[in-house]
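Incident log, structure service

09:12 report received: a user says their structure output differs between two submissions of the same chain.
09:20 pulled the input from the user's history:
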Amino acid sequence: MKKHSFLTFVLAAFAVLATTLTGAQAETVTVKHSSGTTQIASTPKKIVVFDLASIDTLNRLGVSGIIGVPGGVAYPAYIKAYEDKSYTRAGTLFEPDYETVASLEPDMIIVAGRSQAKYAELAKIAPTIDLTVSTDNYLSDVTRNVTLLGQIFDRQEQAKAEISKLEATLADIKKLTAGKGNGLLILTTGGRMSAFGPGSRFGLLYSGFGIVPADPDLSVGNHGQPVAAEYILKTNPDWLFVIDRDAAIGREGQAASQLLDNVIVNKTKAAQRKHIIYLDPQNWYLVGGSLSGLHETAEQIAAAFK
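09:34 re-ran on a clean worker, output below:
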């Protein structure tokens, strides 16, 4: 009886030791992100992503392994392939389906922006990182996110190339927009308008693309400052940039172009010079922080300013 107990003890001790050695030998990466620090197993094989910009970055870096994605939203063309049924719908951009996520047994989960609030709960299922981009350090955070994903998936060189390409693109755009007047960005939805200035959720237009703000004193609220056509005429921007939220989310209603086609807005310099630019609503409202989206915006602005 004693011999049997001793043998049981030795086998149990060996099992614990083997487990410890395996854990010590496993390669991990320490990732500092928007919600803290997380230990991630190097090169995760199964990834659930609740952020469209991160899907785009992984795709551009040539990373495979995405198994779960958000549903209930139309994907932009550059990541349209992830709408395929082979990718499990693991919830929405706002609300994960925790049971589905757990059943996928992911090695890593990515949240950002709209899904940031679910970080703590998802972290109970698997190692989770938060790649939310802040309004104060938008481009720095985009660079950080690309660098982190390059580190985790051993795509450092690809990440460096992507960052260099983006920096060069934005530098060229700033040269192109310099000295060509000021601009105002508005978002339309449900027949209403809000204006966004520097430091707001869409402040990248000014800080990243070099547009001089027509009204630098706009409030920096997440939903912008409610305005009417009279405000646009009073501000009288050289360029008017428009995001149609209803078009971004697929909601029926009055299109931004119809809302702005009135006698008041048509008196502005932007309207009279045909300087009203309707920004891609998916890139600006749904995705945000996407490498492909930033390049597409750069191309759109370049075409208008040449």
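09:41 both user submissions now match this output. Likely a transient worker issue. Closing.
09:42 reviewer note: Residues 177-305 form a domain with the Rossmann fold fold (CATH 3.40.50.1980). The chain has two domains: 29-154, 177-305.
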